[in-house]
Design brief:
This protein has 209 residues and is mainly alpha-helical. 78% of the residues lie in helices and 0% in strands. Helix 2 runs antiparallel to helix 5 and helix 3 packs antiparallel against helix 6. 38% of the residues are buried.
Length: 209
């Protein structure tokens, strides 16, 4: 009976910590290569909106990895998902810190984003470990491209946010490569397109709300 409820309790604990607790990073906040400059109010608002979107992405990452770990068939793969979630906690903490520094708030829709991502993670996991890994690899590739676009849009003066995004981009690329090395299956083109469409909806709403 305990074994039956362990995954449920773990998932509930992860959701509560992600949505309502202050995240703690195991790595220091990435240091900018140059001192931050002065930003106009409009630049500060835009930087805050972009970092809110990135924070939402990390909320979703926690949900995805927690769900996939809960249904993974291979114990080694389950441990991999749990470790990836721990590393993504650094990103969650870093983006929250930048929101605070910029005077911005997290998305009001975070519980909805978390629930949706958790559901997707369960579906991907139920399709089998290779497809679950393929979902991780494709997600991380799309996140990497998304972070690239943010580096183009973040104010040059916001070197602190840029340093965070650059390190996140490196980490996401590594997660994608690890998923491929672990045996990720290539997702069909329609699935990739659907993921991109869902991502556009999420990023558009999170930028504003």
């Amino acid at each position: 009976m305990t074994a039956l409820f362990d995954p449920v309790l773990t998932a509930a604990d992860a959701a509560l910590r992600t949505l309502f607790a202050r995240p703690h990073a195991t790595r220091a906040l990435p240091a900018p290569s140059q001192p931050p400059g002065e930003m106009s109010e409009a630049e500060r608002r835009e930087a805050g909106a972009l970092m809110r979107v990135n924070h939402v992405g990390e909320v979703c990452a926690q949900a995805l990895y927690t769900a996939q770990a809960a249904v993974a068939r291979d114990p080694a793969l389950r441990a991999h998902f749990i470790e990836a979630a721990h590393e993504e906690t650094d990103h969650l903490a870093w983006t929250r810190q930048r929101l605070d520094d910029l005077g911005a708030r997290p998305s009001l829709l975070n519980p909805i984003w978390y629930a949706g991502a958790f559901g997707l993670g369960l579906v991907a996991g139920r399709l089998g470990d290779p497809m679950s890994l393929g979902f991780v690899a494709e997600t991380e590739r799309q996140v990497e491209a998304h972070l690239d676009s943010h580096l183009d849009r973040l104010p040059l003066a916001d070197s602190a946010s840029r340093a965070v995004v650059e390190q996140m981009k490196v980490d996401e690329a590594r997660h994608a490569a690890q998923a491929v090395d672990a045996g990720a299956a290539e997702l069909p083109a329609p699935a990739k397109a659907l993921m991109r469409m869902a991502s556009r909806v999420m990023t558009t709403l999170a930028h504003r709300i």
